[in-house]
Amino acid sequence: MTTKIPVTVLTGFLGSGKTTLLNRILSENHGKRIAVIENEYGEIGVDNDLVIGAEEEIFEMNNGCICCTVRGDLIRILGNLMKRRDRFDYIIIETTGMADPGPVAQTFFTDDEIKNALYLDGIVTLVDAKHVVEHFNDSDEVKQQIAFADVILLNKTDLVSSSALDALEARIHTMNAVARIFRTQDANIAMNHILDLGGFDLDRALAVDPQFLEPEYPFEWSGCYPLEAGAYALVLDSGPDPAMNIWISALSDTSAGSMHTAINTAVLAFSSNKLIMQSGNTLYPDNLLYQLQLYAPPLLFPIEIKKSGVYALFTEHHPDEFSAYLKNSDGNRLHPVTSHEYKPDHEHDDEVISIGITTPGELDLDRFQVWLRELLSTKGPDIFRMKGILNFREMPERYIFQGVHMLFDGRPDRPWGNEPRKNTLIFIGRNLDRNELNTGFSACLD
Amino acid sequence: MFGLDPPYFRKNALNEQWCLSVEEHIIDIAWSPDAERLAAITAEGRIFLINVQSNTATDKQIGYHAHGGNSVSWNSDGTRLATSGQDGRIQIWDGLSGTLLYTLETKDNWVGRVAYHPKQPVLAFSAGRTLKCWRESEGIIYESSDHASTIADIGWHPDGAVVAVAAYNGLTLHTPVRQSNPHKLHWKGSSLLLAWSPDARYIATGEQDSTVHFWYVDTGMDAQMWGFDTKVLELSWHSSGRWLATGGGISISIWDCSGNGPAGRTPQTLSCHFNRITQLAYQPLGHYLVSTDVDRFLLLWEPEKHDKLVGATSLSAPASCVRWAPLGNNLVIGQFDGVIASFTPNSIYSDQDPRTDVVI
Q: What is the pTM of this model?
């Protein structure tokens, strides 16, 4: 069979610079013959005889589920283009400013004729750096366009201060942690950043910051202290919250391994019953979850250590927010030998977020399928995209997958070889529950 | 390779008559009513008129549609040929000389289908979302309101009373000659093509969601058939109206529509294709069924008699069009590579018991 032809989808609000970018792509000397499908009429000013105008036509299938929605206009026009495939070697689809990229992406998953002849190389979303923030609250489409993107161009950066750009980029990164973000003026971008991405460069897509891919924890901070038997105290000042959960536990040593064990116990402890403690009440390293009442600072909670050893302190909020520290009986401030910050789960439910899971362990195929099927059938509408590299038991190759809403496509990739075997997956969507995803996925591990 | 059953399979069941190439993907092809000419249109939009003799054929390009062609249709006496394309135009040609007579401009850039009335000089065509009808002496005589999407297919009732339109959300039946109100047959899905049964009891539709619908024309009720591998773009009725052959994957299903219809009946299955079927065509006034697939095979069946393959040949490229001549004595194949080839079924054996007359 002949090779599949790559397709790049350009999305972005009206005025974000799609046409500028398209003109740039078409006039650039990249040696490709490009066919263009345009849903936005009358804007193109390029000399290209394979520009096809088409009105967006959304086809819902019988059950009315958004996951089964495809783009009829694209099926018709791409199907026809395939009969002239010797005329071009790349296809670009420019959507309207208000387009939901979901049905576009789903078309490449569901229509066999298209799936066999073409592949979605990438979704490139242009963002008007100056005006996009105004649309975050009133437009689903802008959030969908960001959530679906493989590449995001923060365009018109000349109109915005660098601090505003930093804030915008950070916000977009929480929405879609796998997209590569570039800052551009006049949509000026190197072609190799937007075309021929390879469609499925998961290693790159999942090479995001390590804190991001950590599971969600019910605490934000932990510290590890070697303590002699004696009297200590936790000192706090006023902070942003009226109460804070903490948990103190003895460790066998200061190694990462024993800390790791403690983290797992702490996660369980943080969902157990809380003991309400007022300033002056004494705390013990007895694995109980304490809720410290923080009404009238300065606050002091004595801690009694009966046996010398290594102790871990887990706090619901970062101690710095309360100027909190541990002191010994001489009144000296103690510093932890190791400490760690955890990613908080404070996102609003309706916000688009990315949730990453990375964990060693071998997956059981059957359990994973059952879990994923259940997840997609209940949360499919809220999951915009997912990508992952999975480590199935007894499978010598990495298993790579991607999905859109309820649609899922995966295949074995190259062998693991010397690479450490692990599972990395990411969900981009809304109303997603980190703990639920973590728990569900972990249950599929042996 | 196919698990052939020698008593049934005949090596020379199909004789190639002639073969030519226009070197562009054939989008549509149609026989003139007298079977002496063929019209073909390519994906690039070139239009060819082909004169057919028994063992030879000569082609000439008569014109083109910019941006690609979509369909061709002959009028009932073969004096006119209509073509449509992505330039938003319909062109009407003299059926004998190939001279351009009329050009109809539409404001839509996608004129999907042209279809002449089976008896009268009325041309139906789809322009974007609307159906229009045109008469040479009067111009446009009918224009529908917008359908829910770009029209996917149109088809005249066998006696010409109604034009059925397939689009998103089902079928619409228009009566452009009598000019009465259109009648909708709703289906929450996207109908891709339609086929009237020769007795006009049914309209079968192939669907994007990998189903086939049988619409009972008199009641407007429908029966849905599912279990297809992929969207269904291949439908062909037996000339008796009793059987419908459907593709939508690698196996052919033959639905028995006699009596109360196909609902609840298990279809006959013909399975010798190993890749997606591209075309299905029952022989008019005969028993043969031709099927083609993306692996370039052309298979010949006699489903009324048995499920066995009766003939096979390999093409130079997959077939995009398979059209029997009106009397069923000749078959023309249009291919992805621009080849147009003609075959005749070797009829010497067709009415005899194959078991007593085997030629391997």
A: 0.79
